[in-house]
Amino acid sequence: MAKKFYQLSPDERIDRLTVSKDTKTALKRHQSRQNSQLIENYISDYNLPLGLLGNLIVDSQGYTVPMVTEEPSVVAAANNGARLLGLQGGVTTTSQESLTTVGQLLFAGVNADDLADFVVQHRDEIDDAARRAKSSIYRRGGGLVDVTVRSLPGQRTSVDFAIDTQAAMGANIVNTILEGERSVFDPFADRFVAAILSNYSPHQVITAQGKVAVADLGGQDIARKIAALSDFGGVDIYRATTENKGIYNGIAAVTLATGNDTRAISAAGHAWAAGDGQYHSLSHWQLSEDGTQLLGELTLPLPVGTVGGAIGALPSAQTALEILGNPDGRHLRGVLVAVGLAQNLAALKALSGEGIQAGHMRMQARALALQVGAQPDEVGPLVAALAEAEQLDSAVAQQKLEELRQHESQNSNPFRPS
Length: 418
Ligand code: MEV
Known about the structure:
Elements: H1 10-15, H2 21-29, H3 33-36, E1 50-58, E2 61-68, H4 74-86, E3 92-95, E4 101-108, H5 112-121, H6 123-133, H7 135-139, E5 143-152, E6 156-164, H8 171-181, E7 192-197, E8 205-213, H9 214-217, H10 220-235, H11 237-257, H12 262-273, E9 283-287, E10 293-301, H13 315-323, H14 329-352, H15 356-371, H16 376-388, H17 394-412
Antiparallel strand pairs: 1-2, 3-8, 4-6, 4-7, 5-6, 8-10, 9-10
């Protein structure tokens, strides 16, 4: 019987693709045994650039921060924001002391009061079931911390399990404990709907605060504009979404580098941003009373870990954590929220000054150069040539590259008349 697609080897899957021979060879060249075990239907590795934020000061400690991103301006902007914040001593962070992740058992057609009574009467069994399901997390000092019952519209009820997952982000730990709890709730089995971790993470919230001297920003005008722009993020969903996207440019880049779940942190963040019913920016900037400083604050949930999940399986995640100095979860969260604040500051500063396009286009020129086939040693000269161009698109880049090559071949032609 013919093998199913998922039963094929990576090379066999590639051979079934309708792509050129060169593409097949390139795909096969970028395989790794490690990654081939991580996902279904693996064919090859997908490379993204890893860059560094050189000096981020968080709670008086300096960090070199690895960032993985495809967006050309992100690393430069993060460095710019971190440098400005660093001039005033860097970012300080505050966070809840004990962090828990919530898992839900969902029931339909059941009275929440009945479930609440049941939880009170069976609390010991519930604790025992959690311990049996995941004894290793108890050995590491974590485990089930609290069980609460929430009544939802339409006779729906959620039993929420707050679980301390220690250094792990903990999706697997939570889901394993929830599975273990199902048998305890057997009397409600016919009304049970699902057991799943919740990515809403109000118990993992962290705040970063930082300041910038108005003089370092270039004066009162720009500082006032940044504060005015920040206010839009508090009242306008269109602006708030873009501002939060910018914040996650940095946070997601470090999350990805460290092998954490980028979707979990952004889902948690956007839900938090809409927590009071109106979606708003996660940050706020304002002038100090004496007008000499711009004060910034960013608050968001960060469900990340330093062990577990893909972190242990991805050598590049281990490398990223090593670059960061192998932080524990609390310090990693501090770095992430500080990167978000730095990234946000750089974006607001650019928007309030020369505008975002100038800087973006300078960085975009490199991507364009690669896109039209410039070799690594041609990228620099081509980007310089594109800086002079009135328009920046692939046709212009192609033409400039051809001109550059013509010029080069004339210059290197030994028979060229001098
Ligand atoms: C671009 O990736 C991010 C920004 O749009 C963020 C913002 O507008 O605050 C520059």
